[in-house]
Amino acid sequence: MGKVKKKTVDEDADEILVYMQLMLEEARLAKKKITKGFLHSHGEKSPLFPGLHDGSWFERTNSFAASLGIELEHFIVSSGIKEMLLGSSISHYFKHIWASKFAYREDVAIWPAAAINYTTKTQFLFRINKGIYNSWDNDAVNRYTPMNERPIPFERMVFFGDGDTDVPTMKMLTYQGGTSVAVYEKNEKSREKVHSLISNGRAEFVALADYQRDSQLDITAKAILARMNKGFA
Questions:
Q1: Helical packing angle, 121-130 and 167-175, nearest 10°
Q2: Distance CA 181, CA 224 (A)
Q3: What phi and psi values does residue 182 have, to the nearest 5 degrees?
Q4: Which domains does the chain have, with CATH numbers?
Q5: What are the residue ranges of helices labelled H in 68-187?
Q6: How far is it, in rounded angstroms, from Cα 28 to Cα 212?
Q7: Terminus-to-terminus CA distance in the chain, angstroms?
Q8: What values do phi and psi take at 147, rounded to 5?
Q9: Which DSSP symbol is given to 215?
Q10: How do strand 96-105 and strand 108-114 relate by DSSP bridges?
Q11: 180 vs 2, residue with greater confidence
Q12: For residue range 129-147, what is the model confidence (pLDDT) as tens digits?
């Protein structure tokens, strides 16, 4: 059992908070500082799935959506660390990024400020649905808003998930009439996981995490957009 998982079980704690706590502890033991710049640089070096590194996926899907009269927007809802995501070469393609993050003092991380886990991910779809692009305004996200006054209907959302923390969000969006796509890596464990998402009604589509032109995922995404356009025509 990994260090994070063991501590999570031993202390009956939230896995994301434990992970962030251990990051701070390990940094202190090594007499190093976790800064925004340090996390940003790690994000710059993080590998991306095929077809994402040059932004061609976003440009291609945006162009296809525009040909259908759809204004496509991209968001990230992640359990990962926000500063690392901001360091990625594709971060500028996203309208907003919600992710776990630290509180900082003089640019040095001192404490977890937000931890996004399994069930907390779902709230951010409601924030997108209501046009609330922050993490703190709970009054606005809980306030009743008629469906016809919400900027982005759930039916016009597509969620791509590749991990365990995505399961509740996939289920919620599918229930609300949106579309969930489970993407997997080239290994048996990953394939088995996403196949179970299909069989249990969590996701509607499954595809290899290959974002290159004419890949299964590329074709699936275009088909979803075309179907969406037809349904709202």
A1: 40
A2: 10
A3: -90, 120
A4: 13-231 (3.40.50)
A5: 82-86, 121-130, 138-142, 167-175
A6: 41
A7: 51
A8: -55, -40
A9: S
A10: antiparallel
A11: 180
A12: 999 999 999 999 999 999 9
Tell me which amino acid residue 165 is.
T
Q: And the tokens for 113?
A: 């400020």
Q: What is the pLDDT of residues 157-207, one digit of tens each?
A: 999 988 777 888 998 999 999 999 989 888 766 667 676 777 667 788 989
* Those residues with Cβ within 8 angstroms of residue 155's Cβ, 6 or more apart along the chain or in another chain: 176, 177, 178, 228, 231, 232
- Please provide the DSSP assignment of 58-120 as one string: HHHHHHHHHHTT-----EEEEEEEHHHHHTSTTGGG-SEEEEEEEEEETTEEEEEEE---TTT
Can you give the pLDDT at residue 2? 86
Q: Is 144 exposed, middle or buried (0-12, 13-18, 19+ CB in 10 A)?
A: exposed
Task: Kindly state the tokens that stand for 55.
Answer: 């932004």
Sheet holding 75-81, edge to edge: 75-81, 96-105, 108-114
Query: How big is the chain, counted in residues?
Result: 233
